[in-house]
Amino acid sequence: GENVEQHPSTLSVQEGDSAVIKCTYSDSASNYFPWYKQELGKGPQLIIDIRSNVGEKKDQRIAVTLNKTAKHFSLHITETQPEDSAVYFCAASIGDRLAFGKGNQVVVIP
Amino acid sequence: EAQVTQNPRYLITVTGKKLTVTCSQNMNHEYMSWYRQDPGLGLRQIYYSMNVEVTDKGDVPEGYKVSRKEKRNFPLILESPSPNQTSLYFCASSSAGLGGREQFFGPGTRLTVL
After folding, report:
1. Would you call A93 and B102 a contact, using CB atoms and an 8 Å cutoff?
2. Could you tell me whether strands A10-14 and B104-105 are parallel, antiparallel, or unpaired per DSSP bridges?
3. Who contacts B77 (Cβ-Cβ below 8 Å, separation ≥6)?
4. What is the pLDDT of residues A28-41, one digit of tens each?
5. Residue B99: pLDDT above 60?
6. How many CB pairs below 8 Å do chains A and B form together?
7. Residues of B within an 8 Å Cβ radius of A
8. CB A13 within 8 A of CB A80
9. Do B100 and A49 touch (CB under 8 A)?
10. In this complex, which of B48, B90, B100 lies closest to A51 when CB atoms are compared?
11. How confident is the model at residue B97 (pLDDT cuts 50, 70, 90)?
């Protein structure tokens, strides 16, 4: 089955700097790659997603890039702010399901 | 307000005592799912449902049951809970199969089995 791995597991960044989280996946049939943000005490919430026919997608301070050949996709957060501190999950589609990575704890230091 | 609700939010129980965690969505979504979240293991899917009366196993279905008698409700049943089912549980819904559809998550249910 699909195996999704995230790196690094924890990331600390200074406020205003950029943060990058990378995910790798194993199933070449995967064609949908969302990123979810989970704030403390809440359920995950979709922040951005990308499909396999697109290499990059941007929404204000966040962007996602996809390299299908290498089977990896990355979340980029620019000009980080304290409210960006959260756990971020990547996922890859497997048919009608999603396989999630283990999550990255991002800490933005004021 | 469009949302997924879960009840209870917190539950402490003992081994073997049957329990049900309810999940309801008001978005007329066809697809619903249950996940458990454990430290270091991320989100793992327990069961999912593509529509009423259609359910399928996810990655970790052992020890759980589900039913989908109505479109809006998708309860999770633990017939005989064990301590290894202590976890944070999330229900989620989506407008269709997950071929590129956003999942909306509930607030979570923290379950402790003693």
Report:
1. no
2. unpaired
3. B18, B19, B20, B64, B65, B66, B67
4. 999 999 999 999 99
5. no
6. 61
7. 4, 31, 35, 40-45, 48, 50, 58-59, 90, 92, 97-100, 102-103, 105-108
8. yes
9. yes
10. B100
11. low
User: What average pLDDT does chain B have?
Assistant: 94
Report the chain B residue with the minimal C-alpha distance to residue A32. Answer: B100
Structure tokens at A54: 């697109």
Tallying the residues shown for chain A, one arrives at 110
Whether A14 contacts A82, CB under 8 Å: no
> What is the per-residue pLDDT for B100?
61
Looking at residue B37, its amino acid is Q
Q: Are B55 and B74 in contact (CB under 8 A)?
A: no
Contacts of A29 (CB under 8 A, 6+ apart): A94
- When CB atoms are compared, the residue of B90, B92, B97 closest to A96 is B97
Cα–Cα dist B36/A42, whole Å:
14
Sort out which chain B residues have CB atoms less than 8 A from A96's CB and list them.
Answer: 31, 48, 50, 97-99
Q: Tell me the mean pLDDT in the region A43-49.
A: 96
Q: What is the mean pLDDT of residues B87-114?
A: 89
pLDDT of residue B98: 58
pLDDT in tens, B26-60: 999 999 999 999 998 999 999 999 999 999 999 99
